Amino acid sequence: MLTIRPFQASENDYQVMATVYGALAPDAPYTANEWQVRDELHNPQLILYRVIGEFDRVAVGYAEYMQPMWCADPSYIELSVYVHPAYQGRGLGTALWQHLQQAWQQYHPRYVLVKVREDWQTGFAFAIRHGFREQRRVWTSRLDVTDFDPTPFQGALARVAEQRIEIHSFAALATADSDFWHKLYELECQTTTDVPLAFPIAIPPYEQWIKLYQPEHGAVWEGSFAAIADGQVVGLSTLETIDNETDVEVGFTAVRRDYRGRGIALALKLHTIAYAKAMGVTGIRTDNDSTNQAMWHINQRLGFLRGPVWVVLRRQEQEEVR
Q1: Domain N-acetyltransferase spans what residues (predicted)?
Q2: Which class would CATH give 141-308?
Q3: Where are the domain boundaries for CATH 3.40.630.30 in the chain?
Q4: pTM (2 d.p.)
Q5: I need a labelling partner for 117 at 20 to 30 A (CA). Which of 8, 81, 93, 233 fits?
Q6: How far is CA 168 from CA 77, 95, 226, in A?
């Protein structure tokens, strides 16, 4: 018998998420702990609704919708519907979708976003059938740190140094400057709006934002670097840990608009790679967007290889108010 029940923030239900998602994406799984950390980082003032789907009391799927933390417009929500491959084709995906549709009516969303892996043919067809249309494509790329040769890039580091731009780790800067985190937040306020996303962007309040940089949430202060010019933070590139992996991932790379085109982003990435190599990390993963070719070209130059592609789709629920 098919049943849908509320999600419980328990070890068991987070493990359900890990098991289902891991079966769908075995090359890029998330642990139960990583799903829990993601929930802890979600702004509690924003919508997050999740249910578990069961067959004969066995949890084999889950679905959720949320208001993205970086979204400036509350009329956008993100949707996810995941069913274990062994239980697909039995109506659970449709039941979860219909349940979410009923649940979100109270919020009157204008747009619903969904992200489907390109090779998930069943999920992609389901989204198209229910009125979703493609907006952009994103993918995770990976650099094999063990084979990386920094020699061809020494000129890139010298170029930045000649401009009197210094690059230091977050750990060193936080120790030397008590106001460092506020300076970093100011930079992200200036650069986040340039990040390619499927919705209007706004940075979270400082109290919520700073949680992203806590070590217990995966932040690596020693491996995250900022570019400093005249006492100001003008660029950053961050690293985060991945549970049960010898890889790390890039959280955010950005450069202030008036400092772009000077090679700062490349130099910052070279520092993160050098740190990873020194620490015995096997690889670095980063997300790329089809609408941000400049960053993708930097990553390709460094040797990052493209992984599975995700398609971001959007469905319009209501007409725009003009």
Answers
A1: 2-152, 171-322
A2: alpha beta
A3: 2-109, 141-308
A4: 0.88
A5: 8
A6: 37, 51, 6
